[in-house]
Design goal:
Radius of gyration: 16 Å
CATH topology: Aminopeptidase
Number of domains: 1
CATH architecture: 3-Layer(aba) Sandwich
Distance between the termini: 33 Å
CATH superfamily: Gcn5-related N-acetyltransferase (GNAT)
Number of helices: 3
Structural class: alpha+beta
Largest sheet: 7 strands, mixed
Order of helices and strands: EHEEEHEHEE
Helix content: 10-25%
Length: 171
Amino acid sequence: MIRFDDVHSIKLLMRACQVQFVPTLHHAIADYDRDDHIKGGVLYTDYYGGSCQMHVAGFQKGWASKSLLWLAFDYPFNQLGVRKVFGFVPEWNWRARNFDNKLGFKLEYTCADVFDRTDGVNGMHLMSMTRDECRWLRMKMPFIEFAPQLRTSEVTSTMALAALPTYGGIH
């Protein structure tokens, strides 16, 4: 079941993606299973009009359902009207990079020496996808089951969500 801007999913996605979330500026879409466990989701940050950042995390095998994928790309490209979405992927996180490649993201740039890891793998990949490259927009809208309101705790601008330093301390 799909939830938008749900406090529980935002906190889990923030921690997994190591990004900060600012209520009223950033948004989240998450998919939950029948037992009310989060399967995975997407955080959207840094909307600039022509682009935004997209951060994804999966918590269960097979988490990227058709409904979540369709919504994940419909929101930035059709609802926000951006021309490009970006994602930052640590060079050492090959699983995230491979997942982004499968989604259709392309490597734009790799910045060296972002981290201070002892193994020397310290770069950050800047991945991107344009609206024209997004194959998910061409797929037929799947059935989307939205979570009932009583199962969603919507974030408000007065809530204090823990701010995490971006990619801080992950080795």
